User: Which sequence fits this backbone?
């Protein structure tokens, strides 16, 4: 299964190791570059989404509207970036726009500088 940066996929994040990690089966944004995504590299860097929305939560969250097979408005949780095994991917749901992907990078840069 090949994923690409900016796509939204349904994944299984269970089991979690700590109480402050996001688990469950949930959508995530692929954040890893396509050079690794389109190789045999065994893991992928993702940002999880949540439907527990918090208004005005930038830079730690970014709101995206429902689209395609993403059935609810969601927040991308920028602070929960992690690498997952490629066997956790279930189904492609949608994709971010180029503008949204650029905004995610700006927010990530803001919290890591």
Assistant:
């Amino acid at each position: 299964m090949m994923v690409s940066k900016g796509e939204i996929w349904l994944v299984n994040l269970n089991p979690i190791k700590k109480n402050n990690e996001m688990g469950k089966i949930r959508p995530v944004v692929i954040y890893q570059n396509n050079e690794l995504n389109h190789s045999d590299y065994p893991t992928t860097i993702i940002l999880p989404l949540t439907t527990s929305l918090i208004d005005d939560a930038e830079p730690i969250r970014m709101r995206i509207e429902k689209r395609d097979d993403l059935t609810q408005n969601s927040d991308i949780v920028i602070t929960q970036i992690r690498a997952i095994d490629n066997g956790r991917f279930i189904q492609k749901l949608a994709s971010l726009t180029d503008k949204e992907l650029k905004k995610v990078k700006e927010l990530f840069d803001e919290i890591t500088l």
The chain has a mean pLDDT of 93.
